[in-house]
Amino acid sequence: MADEGKTMVPARKALQIRWPGPWSVGAALIALLVLIPILSVVWIAFTPTENIWPHLLSTTLPRYLRSTVILMLSVGIVTGMAGTGAAWLLTRYRFPLSRWLEWLLLLPLAIPAYVGAYALVDLLEYAGPVQTALRGLFGWQSARDYWFPEIRSLPAAVLVLSAALYPYVYLLARAAFREQSGGGEEVAMSLGLGPFARFRRVGLPLARPAIAAGMAIVMMETVNDFGAVDYFAVQTLTTGIFSVWLQSSNPGGAAQLSCVILVLIVALVLIEKASRRRSRFYNLSSRHRPVPRQQLTGMTGLLATLACLVPFGAGFVLPGGVIAGHALDQVEVWGDPDLVQALWNTLIVGGIAACVTVLAAVFLVYGVRLSGAVLPRVLLPVTTIGYAAPGAVLGVGILIPLAALDHVLADGILAATGWDPGLFLTGTAFALVLAYCVRFFAIAQGAADAAMGRVAPSLPMAARSLGRSRGQVLREVQFPLIRGSLASALLLVFVDCVKELPATLLLRPFNYDTLATLTHDKASLELLGEAAPAALLIILVGLAAVGLLARANR
């Protein structure tokens, strides 16, 4: 009997199964929901109804890929030079307007690249003010009398995208330069190194990981862009998705092009991580001493001011001035019902998506912190891939499976009740909200994870010891301490939703406009005056986010 009792103990222990709690299950489900669009793109690409991959490979794909790579690398290089140079000047020197320029250089983040494209073409086209003034000044009668660079071209797309995206590099490079110790700079000066040599041999190598990260973000955003490249008639992989899907009616081919973009994005991420893997820099001083800034005067100071004013002018003053001028001239457009409806749609869809995204991110991060399971912890960093995936790719991955599910549900309800509910998933803004949530989930997740990481573990442990449930701990302890970070994430996600164009164009219901799509539709018809009020509203919303970003990076 004793032997029998001994054998029963391990058997009873074997029956004790630890089931995951609701927080762990919910966190895993949210993570999987974010990943499903990416997985569906891959599935559709490998199981197309009509396989046109050989046709794409022999015809348009090389052209799409070549234009995309050239555009991506060119914008990355230009933004790297502009952002890094401006960050170095403003962290190492004082010159006229330097204190103002430190924050003014962030303002181009408020203007989407497609708005900059509309403004540049309006300013420099044949009937624009620049060429009109040149013809009047020199007496030229037609375009045959003089040479002027082609506006709707790849170089113009590089210029516009670089002017709109350089703040990503500038922000990260400035933070890296500010964190460098003054000791290294003083040693370099004692060895006789001049300003350029100190930048090349001391400052740049230490800031290279941050600069590489900024350039990687810029190149991802370049691949994502549709409005600017479409307006400049530059054929990229993103425009190819629209062409193959909407014009050729081949979702399988669009998914295959989307997979090419995903491969590019993954390659960018891997290259960026590999560039930082072998670089390890440490601050050997126990007390950080910032680098003292030198005063630049005379012509040197003016040149430094001009060098910082050029990207600010190209990225904010030029497009903002052109759009504001048109918007103020078109007073009657401000009362247009289409504009009012687009504004209302933008506020509703963007607000819902921002709230859902932040709440889901808080639930995911909190659930992963509570969970001892491996799956949620593995899925947590993977959910950030949505931000790297372009909006057009997410559109393909969301609309096709969601449309199939929509038809199944509608047919089932009709068969069971005799009532036809219609397409209540793809026929409404549901798909749009889902795309925004997936696309910008990384922003909310990063903010929630960083904020919860700053909360002392003793506080929730003390609340639990007093009998509070896990939900009460989140509501009564964690939330009051992290609500500032969550409010910032809410605003940033909302602003990105307002500016998002490719996913909105693909997923919006019929006759449903947001500010971004209304601006695109009007500008595509060369009606920039009618597009300007909607574009100006987008800029004003973006300025609110830039102000918050500047406040956070003081």
Summarize the structure.
The chain has helices at about 1-15, 20-45, 55-60, 60-90, 100-105, 115-125, 130-140, 155-180, 180-190, 195-225, 225-230, 235-245, 250-275, 300-330, 335-370, 375-380, 385-390, 390-415, 430-440, 440-455, 460-465, 470-500, 500-505, 515-525, 530-550; strands spanning about 95, 295. It is mainly α and about 550 residues long.
Give helix % range. over 70%
Detail the poorly predicted runs.
1-17
CATH topology of the largest domain: MetI-like fold
Radius of gyration: 27 Å
Your description of this structure?
This protein has 554 residues and is an all-alpha fold. The chain has two domains: 37-109 and 161-280 and 294-305, MetI-like fold (Orthogonal Bundle), CATH 1.10.3720; 330-554, MetI-like (MetI-like fold). Helices cover 76% and strands 1% of the residues. It is built from 25 helices and two strands. It has helices at 2-14, 22-46, 53-58, 61-92, 98-104, 113-124, 129-138, 154-179, 182-190, 195-224, 227-231, 237-247, 251-277, 298-329, 337-370, 374-382, 385-388, 391-417, 430-439, 441-453, 458-465, 470-499, 502-507, 515-524, 528-552; strands at residues 93-94, 294-295. Strands 1-2 form a two-stranded parallel ribbon. The protein is globular.
Keywords:
554 residues, mainly alpha, MetI-like fold, 25 helices
Which secondary structure elements does this structure contain, and how are they paired or packed?
Blueprint: H1 2-14, H2 22-46, H3 53-58, H4 61-92, E1 93-94, H5 98-104, H6 113-124, H7 129-138, H8 154-179, H9 182-190, H10 195-224, H11 227-231, H12 237-247, H13 251-277, E2 294-295, H14 298-329, H15 337-370, H16 374-382, H17 385-388, H18 391-417, H19 430-439, H20 441-453, H21 458-465, H22 470-499, H23 502-507, H24 515-524, H25 528-552
Helix pairs in contact: 2-13, 2-15, 2-16, 2-18, 4-8, 4-10, 4-12, 4-14, 6-8, 6-14, 8-10, 8-14, 10-13, 12-13, 13-18, 14-25, 15-19, 15-20, 15-22, 18-19, 20-22, 21-22, 22-25, 24-25
